[in-house]
Amino acid sequence: MLLITDHAIHLIDPDANVLKRRIALAAVDRMCLSKLNDNFFAFIVPTEYDCLMASTRKTEIVTVLVEATKGKSTYEIGVVFSNRFQYHPAADTVKEVQFEQIEGGIKTRILNKTKR
């Protein structure tokens, strides 16, 4: 479950009723998502590790986050649309997500990259 407040993004496990992660909105540099009609998006958090998620409400999530930070004097979440982007699920790991429109849908690949 994803809970968005004026100050943070909360990732909650509803089955265990446990907060899995709290990300301060000020720590989120940008969101990356494809130009296609898929469900994937990533929160890019340079001071921690990034978070790749999937939701059928991707558009609504982006809208809420942009509105929550719009006009803040110290930070605003950027939104990057690209059919290929990298994210860091851990300090020593880099992955690349690739999206491709194919007949009948969208092909999504997540590749391990070498960290430099």
Task: Give a brief outline of the structure.
This protein has 116 residues and is mainly beta.
Walk me through the structure.
GO terms for molecular function: cytoskeletal motor activity. This is Myosin IB heavy chain-like isoform X2. Pfam families: Myosin_TH1 (PF06017). InterPro entries: Myosin_TH1. It is a single chain. The chain starts with a strand and ends with a strand. By secondary structure, the chain is mainly beta. It is built from one helix and ten strands, in the order E-E-E-E-E-E-H-E-E-E-E. The chain has one domain. Strand 8 and strand 9 form a beta hairpin. The longest helix is centred in the middle third of the chain and has 12 residues. A four-stranded mixed β-sheet has the order 6-5-4-7, covered by helices on one side. Strands 1-2-3 form a three-stranded antiparallel β-sheet, with no helix packed on it. The mean pLDDT is 91.
